[in-house]
Amino acid sequence: MTAFGEATRWRRHMFERYASERRTVTVPGYSVEVDADITRHHPQGWDDEALLWLARFPKSAADRRIAEELANVRDRGWQAEWKLHDFDEPDDLKARLEARGLSCHHIEALMVLDVAKTQPRTFDETDVEVAVASPEEIDEIARLGEDVWKCRLPWLARTLREMTDPISGTASLYCARTRDRVVGAGWIEFHGGSRFAQLCGGALLEAYRGRRLYSRLFELRVAQARARGVPYIAVDAAPMSRPILERRGFRFVCHTYPMRTRAYEALGSG
Fold first, then answer.
1. Would you say 237 and 75 are in contact if contact means Cβ atoms under 8 Å apart?
2. Cβ within 8 Å of residue 22, ≥6 positions away
3. In 10 A of CB 199, how many CB atoms?
4. Of 27, 117, 144, 215, which has the fewest Cβ atoms less than 10 A away?
5. Is the pLDDT of residue 230 over 70?
6. The pLDDT value given to residue 106
7. Which of 243, 199, 201 lies closest to 222 in space, CA to CA?
8. 70-82: per-residue pLDDT in tens?
């Protein structure tokens, strides 16, 4: 087998392992429904956006199943994000969703890190503190996310509070802070007995890039996974983050496309 063929086989194998575990994961603020050909996360009262993903439709039934899923969302008065991966089926699912009016704001890359192949790293102290975020910093972290990603995220602060609840939470949240403000943040999610933790929310104000703050936030989250004995970390990497994560040992699995029934609301609109 060629090196390309071996890499493709590894990518598909890793995606199947990831998908098999993520298919039934619960998300704070959502209920989960798992069918043989799709997983749905339904909002529980405070948000109006459902999540659909991990679709496996026969090509002959794809248009019918897409119509059924979107009608179900619409009839409940919701919007939806349909999270699409390269390995979803059928292979033209993205074009079929676009034909139904869904749009993709940006393309990400699903990447996986083998934690056992990493070594802990330490950094010199600076004038920016990087540590576990306090509950009082969550609103500021949510505003930071809007500033960095240039879109409104009205659900983020509440989601972070639920994810980091000391009793029922599933995530550890970290931030980088000067004396005056939060300048960076990121969190890592853990789900029961899953072999995959999920790295999320890496954001850093432009003025503070190039100062190893992203690396410090990253190392704290990897250390948390290492301490819990979780063998893999997955991440949906934005184009800016992908080369940094590749240097840290992450391997590319596939592209992901957040297809939405409602376009991202740009900052400054309305």
1. no
2. 39, 54, 191, 194, 196
3. 24
4. 117
5. yes
6. 85
7. 199
8. 999 999 999 999 9
**Element (H or E) spanning 176, and its range?**
strand 171-177
Domain residue ranges in the chain:
3-108, 114-254
Average of per-residue pLDDT values in the chain:
91
- The DSSP 8-state label assigned to residue 89 in this structure reads B
What is the fold, at CATH topology level, of the domain defined by 114-254?
A: Aminopeptidase (3.40.630)
Residue 88 and residue 174: Cα distance in Å, rounded? 32
The whole-angstrom separation of Cα 67 and Cα 97 is: 10
Q: Which residue has the tokens 């590894």?
A: 10
CA distances from 43 to 29, 32, 209, 236 (A): 6, 9, 35, 21
Amino acid at residue number 56: R
pTM assigned to the model: 0.90
